[in-house]
Design goal:
This protein is an alpha+beta fold and about 375 residues long. About 30% of the residues lie in helices and about 30% in strands.
Length: about 375
């Protein structure tokens, strides 16, 4: 354990960081150029909820329709944040509770008559209110978003075709909105140097290193579908594991196939990272950095981890710090959450070390 012989107080530096809360840019020399990440939706927003109600007046019908959509929005957010094993525990909220859960809503495609109201509604749920319901009911959940999973859609016997219907199915924006954003690679010459390899299906994590670096990915998913879309084999490749899944349907579409593969990836992530917020942990870690700019970046990224309750700086020198961290859940889940902020927590209860992580280390379980 690092011992600080003499506490070095850098008052001006800490004052600036505390006041701005902004990380200092620290570009790594020679780092590979990455593809811009997809725009991620708010986990607490549900779009496209179709409502349809009839009443004695259009105004009453509209009020009924809005009330009809709120339970659907709540269910979608609940299932987005929780593993399937907890779906049966979903709290059943009454109209007043659901109303308090919704922060705002937007209406599109509105149609009405004197007695009927139809529309598509986007509901924005209040994150604090959702968390309160889940914690009061002692339901484990996660808000930790994984780094993107790069999906390589392959038609059996034909390989990767960026313009084909299987690849097109993955362009649906909804696939980038979950806890594990599923992204389709550009399919340009740089990508095809990997996709055209005869041993593509046998590549391990290191074999996909250029692709992982380019897309800042946390996983690579090989999704192999039959030409009719009725069977799909999915192979999820991560730094420490290679997981295969198979799906078979009597009659299917590529869109349904993509949803099945994405649901499996999401479920694996949620099961791994769902936190019991009734459980608190505590650890002391040595933080290692090369500059004060890196220290600022580490502090900013620590603040972005939802499961971290509190961080106390016990001591600070020019290249090391000692911090006391209080967090929800298990230490393994904290490591996962930190990894998504490119922070690597290693060691054991007697000697933890925290530092900026590489792509591989940052995503290791």
């Amino acid at each position: 354990m690092f011992r600080i012989a003499q506490l070095v107080v850098i008052a001006a530096f800490l004052a600036v960081i505390s006041a701005t809360g902004a990380p200092v840019a620290a570009a790594d020399a020679g780092a590979p150029a990455t593809v811009a990440p997809p725009a991620l939706g708010d986990l607490f927003t549900v779009a496209g909820v179709k409502v349809d109600a009839t009443a004695e007046s259009a105004i009453t019908a509209r009020d009924i329709a809005m009330a009809q959509g709120r339970p659907e929005a709540w269910t979608k957010v609940y299932r987005r944040l929780t593993a399937t094993a907890n779906w049966g525990k979903q709290p059943q909220l009454d109209d007043n509770q659901l109303l308090r859960l919704v922060r705002s809503f937007e209406v599109a495609g509105e149609r009405r008559s004197t007695t009927r109201y139809l529309a598509e509604v986007t509901y924005h749920l209040n994150p604090a209110a959702v968390r309160a319901v889940l914690r009061q009911n002692r339901i484990s959940y996660t808000e930790t978003r994984s780094k993107p999973a790069v999906v390589i859609p392959i038609i059996e016997g034909k390989g990767f075709t960026p313009s084909g219907p299987w690849a097109a199915a993955w362009k649906e924006p909804a696939f980038t909105q979950g806890l594990v954003p599923m992204i389709l690679p550009a399919g340009d010459a740089e990508d095809m140097a990997i996709f055209s390899r005869e041993d593509l299906m046998q590549l391990d994590w290191m074999g996909f290193a250029p692709l992982v670096a380019r897309y800042n990915a946390g996983a690579v998913v090989l999704a192999v579908a039959s030409e009719d879309g009725n069977t799909v084999q999915s192979i999820e490749i991560g730094p420490m594991a290679r997981t295969a899944s198979s799906f078979a349907f009597a009659q299917s579409t590529f869109t349904a196939d993509a949803a099945a593969v994405a649901d499996k990836v999401q479920e694996t992530w949620k099961t791994r990272t769902s936190v019991d917020f009734g459980t608190r942990g505590h650890l002391v870690a040595d933080v290692q950095f090369n500059s004060l700019a890196q220290w600022a970046r580490i502090r900013a990224q620590l603040r972005a981890v939802r499961s971290v309750v509190d961080v106390d700086v016990v001591g600070l020198s020019a290249s090391e710090a000692e911090i006391d961290v209080t967090y929800f859940g298990r230490v393994e889940q904290l490591q996962d959450s930190l990894a998504q902020q490119s922070l690597a927590l290693t060691g054991n209860p007697t000697a933890y070390t925290l530092q900026l992580g590489t792509t591989s280390a940052a995503n290791a379980p």
